[in-house]
């Protein structure tokens, strides 16, 4: 299971969310969880889609292991004031 975080350099909201996600992964309360950070400034399509929206968080669940296909689902942006525990609870709803 993979979390995909669309972010950009200098975005304090992005950095705060990334730190909280990394803490959740370190605790391993949600097994097999991985975090992929995508810098929107490195891809024109990402930049056009998310330049005014970052941080944007998706969860990718593998639906067909033989064909390496993922089901991608947007997770509503959590409040910047959300605690690590509140964020973990939110993630569990989508995992």
What are its keywords?
95 residues, alpha+beta, Glutaredoxin, four-stranded mixed β-sheet, 3 helices, 4 strands, 36% helix, globular
Please characterize this protein's 3D structure.
The protein has 95 residues and is of the alpha+beta class. It has 3 helices and 4 strands, in the order E-H-E-H-E-E-H. Strands 2-1-3-4 form a 4-stranded mixed beta sheet, covered by helices on one side. A hairpin with a 4-residue loop joins strand 3 (56-64) and strand 4. The N and C termini lie close together (8 Å).
Global mean pLDDT: 91
For the largest beta-sheet, the strand count, sense and barrel status come to: 4 strands, mixed
Going by CATH, the architecture would be 3-Layer(aba) Sandwich
The CATH topology turns out to be: Glutaredoxin
DSSP strand tally: 4
Number of helices: 3
Number of domains: 1
Physical arrangement of strands within the biggest beta sheet: 2-1-3-4
The gyration radius over C-alpha positions equals 13 Å
Spatial gap, N to C terminus: 8 Å
Low-confidence stretches: none
**Please, what is the CATH homologous superfamily?**
Glutaredoxin
Which CATH first-tier class would you pick? Alpha Beta
Strand content: 25-35%
Question: Briefly, what is this?
Answer:
By secondary structure, the chain is of the alpha+beta class. Helix content is 36%, strand content 29%.
Secondary structure elements and their pairing?
Layout: E1 2-7, H1 12-27, E2 34-39, H2 44-50, E3 56-64, E4 69-75, H3 84-94
Parallel strand pairs: 1-2
Antiparallel strand pairs: 1-3, 3-4
């Amino acid at each position: 299971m993979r979390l995909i975080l669309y972010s950009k350099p200098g975005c304090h909201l992005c950095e705060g969310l990334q730190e909280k996600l990394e803490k959740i992964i370190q605790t391993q309360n949600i097994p097999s969880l991985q975090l992929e950070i995508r810098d929107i400034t490195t891809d024109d399509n990402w930049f056009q889609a998310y330049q005014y929206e970052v941080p944007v968080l998706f969860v990718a669940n593998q639906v067909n292991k033989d064909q390496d296909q993922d089901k991608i689902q947007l997770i509503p942006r959590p409040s910047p004031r959300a605690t690590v525990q509140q964020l973990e609870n939110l993630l569990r709803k989508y995992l």
